[in-house]
Each structure stands twice: as structure tokens, then as C-alpha cells.
């Protein structure tokens, strides 16, 4: 479900559908549009089909290596790989032994924490297991997931510098729903909207007349954030910047919101994102006010840690300079 706060949703959709029909008629009579550079560089093949084949291969790799029932581990492994922006790292990653993977993963999350502590905090179920010393069987299964993801082409999709290219599919969505047990999925109603449908909805709601600064996009049943992806891509297609939008989304399921938080980084939704786990029916704002307070506290904590580290670094340099001065001084 997606709610664009300042719209009369149904009136707006009807009007836009009428406008689109008119525009289609005009376009049929006009020459073909010029293909932009961005379009020419678009991903070859179907990104969504690739996301599904990554999910299938990772799921079978995880279970055939007896990884166990903790979904956060295979999901978190793939999520960690989606945070890498250098496709050439794939060859090096394939050389790592299972026991070397946790340290590498910790470093990836630490780097992200410096820029997006709020989203890394929301993604906790995808990386908390790394600190819990996974056993050798789990680590072998994690290695199988790394190899399978790379061989199936995950980094071709997600390691792009350009957010437009790496936002062409939600790789975590089919993996999240695929790993979930059938009855659990039914109980949760966890059937994500197909990207073709969410793309269409976004194109109907957002056009070149859309006034973006000050706009809030609110998703009270977020899943892994597929609606946000469609909205962000449509904004980019219309020459608008997703960074100008406030993105507020929650889901009752912690793994879903964790995936959406990682996706918000991968899809580069910008600085004004709040994603939290909460029941939308439990309070009028679905927990938004509390989530914003928590987010501010997390960012404040990051700022204090960075300030402290900078202070210690400067103090260490001053002491080193002082030592060198004393070494040079006559006794
Ligand atoms: C059908 S999925 C839709 C996900 C996403 N909006 C999409 O279109 O792909 C429904 C989602 O709503 C979440 N959900 C169900 N009840 C909820 C509640 N009371 N508050 C927040 N989220 C809820 C589920 O966990 C699930 O992820």
C-alpha cells in the first residue's frame, strides 16, 4: 500500500488516467522520442527475472548447505553484498574462506553506519548474527550464498554507481518471501506487489506536474519497500530527485523493515528516510512520531562517536608531535 500524503488519491488517479489517455493519442501522432544516454545504458535482460533467479539459487544453496532456519543469515548475506559498489570485488570475494567472511561483513556495515546509522539500525536483523559468532556450518552456508549470489549475477544488478541502474529490481523481495514458510507467509499476507503493477501505480500518481519539495510518501505496509522503488524510479524518469521527498514507511515484520532499510540505501532514496517496525493499526500515526525521535537519537549518537574519534585522532597527533619535539630537544 502506498499513500502520497497531500493527494486526494482516487480523484487524482482518475484525472491522471484521463490525461494519460489524451497524451497517448497525441504521442501516437508525433515522432519517436529521442533515447537518452541513461536508457541506452540500462540493464540488459529482465532485472526482475534476475532477482528471482538469485532468490531461488540462494535459497537452494543455503538449504543444501544445511544453513538452518534463521532467515536473517542468508538474507543478511545477500543484503551485505548489495551494499558493495565495486563489481570487480567479486573475484576477491570468491577467494575468501568461510571464517574470513564475518570480518569483511562487519567492515561493510561499519562503513554504512558512518553515513546512515538510522538505516543500519533498522536493518539490525540482517547483521546482528555477524557479531554472534556463527558456527562453521553456518559459515559454510554463508559462503555458498556469497558464491551463488555472485555467480547468478547479483553484483551486475546492484554494484552500479548509478542509483537508477541498481534500482531496477528489488532483489531482497523474492528472497524474503521465498525463504518464508508457506503458512507463515499466508498468515502475514506477505505477497509483495509485482513490480509491473507498482511501477504502473507510481507512473499514474507521479507525473511531470508533480511538485516534489515538501512531498511525503507514506507506506504503512512496507514489505521490502517495492512501492518506494517504483516511486523513486518514476521520479527519476520525470527528472525529479528522490532526495527531495520524505519517505516514511513501516511494517509489522522486523525482517521486512530491515530489507526495506537496506533497499533505501541501495536505491539512494536520500537523507529524509524513516523506516521502522510497527503496527500501523496500533496508533493514529502508525508509530511515526516515536520513530522520528528514535531516528534523531541514533543520528545524534553517531555524531558524538565521530566527534570523539576525531578529537582522539587530533590529540594523538598532537602527542606524537610533542614526542618528536622532545626527542629533538637537548637533554
Ligand atoms: C501484501 S504485503 C505488501 C507489501 C508492499 N506494500 C508491497 O506492495 O509489495 C503486506 C505487508 O503488510 C504487513 N502488515 C500486515 N499487517 C500490518 C500492520 N498491522 N501494520 C503494519 N504492517 C502490516 C505485512 O507484514 C506485509 O509485509
Automatic annotation (TrEMBL):
Gene3D superfamilies linked to this entry: Vaccinia Virus protein VP39
Enzyme Commission numbers on file: 2.1.1.72
Any one GO BP annotation for this protein: methylation
InterPro entries listed in its UniProt record: DNA_Adenine_Mtase (IPR051537), DNA_methylase_A-5 (IPR003356), SAM-dependent_MTases_sf (IPR029063)
GO molecular function: methyltransferase activity
Enzyme class: transferase
Superkingdom of the organism of origin: Bacteria
Keywords: Methyltransferase, Restriction system, S-adenosyl-L-methionine, Transferase
UniProt xrefs under Pfam families: N6_Mtase
Catalytic activity: a 2'-deoxyadenosine in DNA + S-adenosyl-L-methionine = an N(6)-methyl-2'-deoxyadenosine in DNA + S-adenosyl-L-homocysteine + H(+)
Segments forming domain DNA methylase adenine-specific: 183-285
SUPFAM superfamilies recorded: S-adenosyl-L-methionine-dependent methyltransferases
Name of the protein: site-specific DNA-methyltransferase (adenine-specific)
Biological source species: Streptomyces polyasparticus
Amino acid at each position: 500500500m502506498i499513500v502520497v500524503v497531500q493527494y486526494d488519491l482516487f480523484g487524482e488517479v482518475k484525472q491522471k488516467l484521463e490525461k494519460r489517455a489524451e497524451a497517448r493519442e497525441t504521442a501516437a501522432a508525433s515522432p519517436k522520442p529521442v533515447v537518452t544516454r541513461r536508457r541506452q545504458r540500462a540493464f540488459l535482460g529482465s532485472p526482475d527475472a534476475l532477482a528471482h533467479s538469485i532468490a531461488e539459487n540462494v535459497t537452494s544453496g543455503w538449504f543444501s548447505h544445511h544453513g538452518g532456519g534463521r532467515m536473517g543469515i542468508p538474507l543478511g548475506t545477500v543484503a551485505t553484498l548489495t551494499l558493495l559498489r565495486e563489481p570487480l570485488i567479486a573475484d576477491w570475494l570468491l577467494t575468501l574462506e568461510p571464517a574470513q567472511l564475518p570480518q569483511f561483513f562487519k567492515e561493510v556495515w561499519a562503513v554504512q553506519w558512518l553515513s546512515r546509522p538510522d538505516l543500519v539500525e533498522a536493518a539490525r536483523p540482517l547483521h546482528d548474527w555477524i557479531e554472534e559468532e556463527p558456527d562453521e556450518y553456518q559459515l559454510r552456508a554463508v559462503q555458498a550464498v556469497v558464491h551463488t549470489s555472485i555467480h547468478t549475477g547479483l553484483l551486475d544488478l546492484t554494484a552500479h554507481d548509478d542509483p537508477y541502474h541498481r534500482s531496477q529490481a528489488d532483489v531482497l523481495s523474492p528472497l524474503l518471501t521465498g525463504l518464508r514458510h508457506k503458512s507463515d507467509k499466508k498468515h502475514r499476507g506477505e505477497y509483495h506487489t509485482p513490480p509491473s503493477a507498482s511501477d504502473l501505480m507510481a507512473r499514474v500518481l507521479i507525473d511531470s506536474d508533480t511538485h516534489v519539495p515538501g512531498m511525503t510518501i507514506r507506506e504503512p505496509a512496507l514489505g521490502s519497500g517495492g512501492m518506494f522503488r517504483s516511486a523513486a524510479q518514476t521520479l527519476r524518469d520525470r527528472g525529479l530527485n528522490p532526495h527531495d521527498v520524505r519517505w516514511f514507511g513501516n511494517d509489522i515484520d522486523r525482517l521486512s523493515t530491515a530489507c526495506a532499510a537496506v533497499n533505501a540505501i541501495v536505491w539512494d532514496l536520500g537523507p529524509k528516510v524513516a523506516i521502522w517496525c510497527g503496527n500501523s493499526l496500533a496508533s493514529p500515526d502508525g508509530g511515526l512520531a516515536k520513530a522520528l525521535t528514535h531516528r534523531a537519537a541514533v543520528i545524534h549518537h553517531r555524531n558524538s562517536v565521530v566527534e570523539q574519534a576525531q578529537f582522539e585522532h587530533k590529540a594523538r597527533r598532537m602527542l606524537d608531535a610533542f614526542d618528536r619535539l622532545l626527542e629533538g630537544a637537548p637533554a
